[in-house]
Design a protein that fits this description.
The protein has two domains: 3-68; 103-201, no CATH class. Helices cover 25% and strands 26% of the residues. It has four helices and eleven strands.
Length: 208
């Protein structure tokens, strides 16, 4: 029959039963009334003779449990609410868009060009830009011994939390970046190709 044990050291109560290991060694089994945890204490071979030693083992075992006992189970609604309240809103991304967005970095994305914003929704990845020098445009900068040729920059961009809407291509227009959807970029490539073909289709000659 189970006994109710109330020890002074831990302010908890337990139901106690006596069992025996396969080798016959007595084992006290304590069930915590607060959290229903089972604490098994293997006693000395003769707990009547060595009762002080056995009682010391019991106290140590129950003291250890008292330090970690979570208390009685919470009502399901309260447990759910506390779990929701434990969500940490801070994101320590250290300038890494993979951490900011929680999405895997594409193999082509350059870490130094990550897009870090105040919202993971607008965070993303960018490729190293390709450069297209322009012969017919005034140099962006020039000195006595150098010239920074006018050029276009083109880069792939991905804002993963935005789904397919976040798959874009960036193109510099003057000093500004123009961002377009991938379908628009492909259409622009077709337009440029068609325009180049059209320009080369007929050679204008002077009238006599």
């Amino acid at each position: 029959m189970a006994d109710v044990v109330d020890l002074d050291a831990p302010a908890l109560t337990y139901d106690r039963t006596r069992e025996a290991d396969p080798d016959g060694t007595p084992v006290n089994v304590y069930i915590c009334d607060e959290c229903a945890a089972e604490i098994r204490v293997r006693l000395d071979s003769d707990p009547v003779i060595d009762w002080k030693l056995s009682l010391g083992k019991v106290h140590r075992a129950l003291d250890e449990h008292a330090d970690v006992c979570p208390g009685p189970p919470l009502p399901a609604e309260l447990a759910t609410w506390r779990e929701l309240c434990d969500v940490d809103a801070e994101v320590h991304h250290d300038g890494d868009a993979e951490i900011l967005t929680g999405c895997k970095r594409p193999s082509w994305a350059a870490p130094e060009r990550d897009v870090i914003t105040h919202s993971p929704w607008f965070g993303g990845f960018r490729s190293t830009p390709a450069v297209l020098p322009l012969a017919r445009r005034r140099a962006d900068d020039a000195g006595a011994a150098y010239m920074d040729r006018a050029h276009l920059l083109v880069a792939a961009k991905q804002y993963p939390l935005q789904g397919t809407a976040g798959l874009t291509v960036g193109l510099t227009v003057g000093k500004e970046w123009l961002t377009m959807f991938t379908a628009e970029a492909r259409q622009l490539a077709r337009l440029l190709h068609a325009a180049a073909d059209l320009a080369e289709s007929e050679t204008s000659a002077r009238h006599d």
